[in-house]
Amino acid sequence: MPDLQEIPVGExxxxxxxxxxxxxxxxxxxxxxxxxxxxxxxxxxELDGETIITCxxxxxxLHTGIEKNMEAKTYLKxxxxxxxxxxxxxxGNNLAYVMAVEKLVELDVPPRAQAIRVILTELQRxxxxxxxxxxxxxxxxxxxMFLYCFREREYVLDIFELVSGQRMMTTYFRPGGLWRDxxxxxxxxxxxxxxxxxxxxDQYEELLTKNPxxxxxxxxxxxxxxEVALQHGVTGPMLRASxxxxxxxxxxxxxxxxxxxxxxxxxxxxxxxxxxxxxIQEMRESTSIVExxxxxxxxxxxxxxxxxxxPPPRSELGxxxxxxxxxxxxxxxxxxxxxxSIYSAVESPRGELGVxxxxxxGPKPYRIHWRTPSFDNLSVVPEIxxxxxxxxxxxxxxxxxIVLGDIDR
Amino acid sequence: MDPKLLPIVRDLEANFSGRLExxxxxxxxxxxxDQIIRALTLLRDxxxxxxxxxxxxxxxxxxxxxxxxIIYQLSSLAQNITLQLRVPLDGDTPELPSATxxxxxxxxxxxxxxxxxxxxxxxxxDLRRILLPPDMEGHPLRKDYPLGYEEPQxxxxxxxxxxxxxxxxx
Lengths: 409, 170
What we know:
- The structure holds two protein chains of two kinds.
- Chain A has helices at residues 18-21, 66-71, 79-83, 90-105, 111-139, 143-164, 185-208, 212-218, 226-231, 237-240, 248-251, 272-295, 314-317, 321-332, 373-379, 381-384, 390-400, 404-408, and strands spanning 5-6, 26-30, 42-48, 51-58, 173-174, 177-178, 340-348, 351-359, 367-371.
- Chain A is of the alpha+beta class.
- In chain A, the strands form three sheets. Chain A has a four-stranded antiparallel β-sheet. Chain A has a three-stranded antiparallel β-sheet with strand order 7-8-9. In chain A, strands 5-6 form a two-stranded antiparallel sheet.
- In chain A, helix 4 (90-105) packs antiparallel against helix 5 (111-139) and helix 6 packs antiparallel against helix 7.
- Chain B is 23% helix and 25% strand.
- Chain B is α/β, with parallel strands linked by helices.
- The A-B interface holds A 11, 14-15, 59-60, 63, 65, 67-69, 72, 103-104, 106, 228, 230-233, 235, 244, 246, 251-252, 340-343, 345, 352, 354, 356, 358, 366-367, 369, 371, 375-376, 379-380, 408-409 and B 23-24, 26, 28, 50-54, 56, 58-59, 71, 73, 75, 77, 80, 82, 84, 103-105, 107-108, 125-126, 128-133, 140-141, 145, 147-148.
């Protein structure tokens, strides 16, 4: 079945315009296997010639039932599912999850673990924005951007592999701290990256920011006013490109973000180009946060010593009977969490990533709901593509930076 | 609880007979389903709650009354506070009025409620399944929906499970 084909009005008759019912406009199917949809997203487009009148997103092709699956696992084991949500922001998902668990069971995290969490989530933000820059460049015809961005992303993934043994599905943050301390090579690897990366961002900007072909595709395309964005629950760089200064790292600092000096880039235009500028600037700010965190990285333990929640280190297992019991209990039965519910949110590269977590006194989450930013960010796309050409839809979709694993969960 | 929330909670208690519960410094206000749209409109227009962060549900099956709690997680960017409204719903086929006119992103979130919990949304402009295919049966996030494993048959329940097991027709 070809990806672009005409489809009957039938199911969508309450959503399309009257002209579609009279057969004057055409309903066209785009996706789900279309390179510009960044995953498996199907769009039903009502077209008048090449102008979009209505856009109806159809999601769920990547639905994996993560919320239901997590309800069947203990708090420690459920964490691996969180990596698979937004596969470009694995450290950030881990952070959202462990912060929710820590809030529910009232667990303290040592300052060294907090600082390492900040370093790794900011590196993850850079890696995620690099994928966005590469793929959206590819979508509007800047093919070499894709290669450059993936080259730099590889450095970040190497650092993740160094600390966690995995490039993508890291599960490095654990409730109460980290899996283990960073290796000795870590600091040098991050410093190398910090030294190289700002120059590379300059290179991207030289290639794109004033490139007339790029500007033609981006300027005044997909304008999203701030009020409309908020009405649709849009958060993250998309909201900040529409003139609303809202970043959870500044508004409700977590993990010690209040210690670091950084700016929240805001643009007022609200178009595709503004979103590009905001994300480029965010990469520079993230680099600065990583550098500050690395410079004042405190010494000390990397996880809480509360043995009722945090498994003991391997070195203790051979010498301490108590440690062996704790290890066994935590990895089989798990720790109980109190009856009650909390909501905790972090700023992911795409916006507010929230976790609603409810415990029932047992060792498994009674209910966990992921408030994923891409879900709301995609729901505003039908509003802003109206009247644009199909080719502009590709640029708009790229600028929203959706991840389908994040939407479908 | 943030002191800035206090007048708002008092307002909800006075106008909508809301009931406050606090847990880990978060404010949860319980109210009835028929008042939720007016409460949301008041919070948005008078108290600057511009962002509906999320809208979801919890199933307390086998408890019947209330079986579900609907959760409205609201954020105010101007005052930097959050508030959670909880609406208890009874029975297996509950109904909820649509908040789409108050917060536009409630549209997809309510479709998800319909899809995952089988909660019927009144006055919704586009009530279709959102994540699962249209011919799907059941609502997976309900607690009485199995996780997808086949039920293991032991000697003591072999026949009981065999009776309700679907086999291919000859």
